[in-house]
Amino acid sequence: MNYPKALVVFLISFAILNVGIFAITVSQDFTNAFDAAVQAMITDSEWNKFYSDTMYFTVPTCTSATVKWPTKNPFIGRSGLNMCFETGTLSPWLETKTKIAQMVVQKINSHYGTSYNANILRFNTSALGFFDTMKNAVNNGDCDMITANILVTAERSSSIHYQCPFGSGSNGWIRTKRDPQLSITDISQLNKTGIMVGAYEGTAFATYVKTNLPAATFVPYSGINLQYDAVLDGSVHAIIGDAIQYYNWANVQMSGKCNCTVKTYGNTFGMATFTNVNITTSGVDQIGGGNVWTSFLVLIIVSILVMF
């Protein structure tokens, strides 16, 4: 049977880009185990010292009710737990996200007397943006937990399940060398025609630019590391993002030689890990359900190609 070539291409592209929409469910015990592990981690002196020494901010007190560890280990039959964040992550977030993954699994192992590996997986976010990529990865079963620095918002709570914040931080922006004759000392001054402002696409920072700086030209970046090239070559007037990352990049990695200025804006806030939002009493203890759907879609694609 012959199909229009455009239809075949469309179906293949749709399947590849949207595999994450096929969500699985997880049990309440699965969720509670991760919630309890994070609560144990954020009260651990080792974590608090690491975060304050590495990230310049403190670990906030969890305001949620204490979660009890499930009596039964919900991960029986597993050799490891898949802990995920995005590719392109730079220091100090690279070390911090890795540390979170390791300590959460360590807390689980300590409680249940197990020896699970912390399988650290990293995802390219260029196709769907940061948040949608990570949300899909955890909700389709490819990841057990996302250890990225996610801002806690009411809107996102409907599509992901947050744990208690693992640390606090602040929004930041970098004024580059572009048009040095322009006096831009406050973030509100970026909201002008002709001003170019960059941000990592799919993040709350990109949303901020689009919403609060509509007069400026928004320059999206598909990877977090790409924004620093824009600072060095002066292709934008400013970039907006995570203050911790910006301070580290400008003062440690660039040794203060970036010919730029780092500033903060807004209030400090908590950042959290998250797990699958689809929690049911009959849910499975997540074992990589997304891979099942991936295989199913591959079979569909192969069948189409054979007929084509």
Write up this protein.
Helix 1 runs antiparallel to helix 9 and helix 2 packs across helix 4 (93-112). The strands form 2 sheets. Strands 2, 3, 4, 5, 6, 7, 8, 9 and 10 form a 9-stranded mixed β-sheet that branches. This protein has helices at 5-17, 28-42, 45-55, 93-112, 130-139, 204-212, 226-233, 243-253, 289-307, and strands spanning 26-27, 80-86, 117-123, 145-151, 161-162, 167-175, 196-200, 217-221, 238-242, 261-275, 279-280. The radius of gyration is 21 Å and the shape is elongated. The termini are close together. The longest helix is centred in the first third of the chain and has 20 residues, at 93-112. It is an alpha/beta fold and 308 residues long. The protein has 3 domains: 1-24 and 288-308; 27-168 and 272-287, D-Maltodextrin-Binding Protein, domain 2 (3-Layer(aba) Sandwich), CATH 3.40.190; 170-270, Periplasmic binding protein-like II (D-Maltodextrin-Binding Protein, domain 2, 3-Layer(aba) Sandwich), CATH 3.40.190.10. It has 9 helices and 11 strands. Helix 6 (204-212) links the parallel strand 7 and strand 8 (217-221).
